[in-house]
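Posting this for the archive.
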Amino acid sequence: MSAAALAAGVPLFRPERVSDPATALALRAARPDLGVVVAFGQFLPKIVRELPSLGYTINGHASLLPALRGAAPIARAILAGYRETGISVMRVEREMDAGPVARMVATPIGDEEIAGELEGRLAVLAAGALAEAIDDVAAERIRFTPQDDARATLAPKLTREETQLDFREPARQLVLRIRAFAPRPGATTTLGGEAIRILRARALPGPVDAAPGTAWSRLRAGESAPLGIATGDGWLAPTLLQRAGGRALAVDDFLRGHAVAEGARFGGSTEAAEA
């Protein structure tokens, strides 16, 4: 984004801390009519968010507010199994993502869509929604509707612990976790003491007669796959994997260079729990 602004000759000011008094001075010198932020991780002090001549700043947030207020709405939507999400254009206030909303655009979440793909689609929707909202501001027809705080849910920042796959969970929930964290930071497990990221996978039904985390080169369920991992309910069939420092590989390519012995165990924490 910075490169695009520089290429277009747009003045660029990149303060490390928006709360620094020098930031307000620089913004005031620019004499803005309206403030616009997207995916901005810092708290905007009142002096900054109300500095524009219109007296407010708007934000393009990646959820249908009041659902999923917070830093990680895209991953949280997938992790929770949402079938729909979207973009909300709201006025920035002191409480995070709680300001009144002017515009919302909904979109379905694909059955196999990963967070990175959804983020790209939402970025396009956000650009369009913000452009329309700015036109409404210029035409003095913008209208803000307060959120229903009683219906609010939160989307806190992702933690490292959440990326760790626990194969005691059902396969379908593991697939949601994999999709929610792909491609970055990636859902992680271990195999033979080595970290492995699983970036795409399918959940397959069928009886599981092995401890969670146990690998079989051919599933015993009704549908075969090059690699299956036993879970708390059903089989997890990885389709895209990545070793530490390596590139992401389709499961067949991964197995050609890194054979997984039948009965091998994925997941250090699972092994410890079952020992």
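The chain has two domains: 2-151, 161-274. The radius of gyration is 23 Å.
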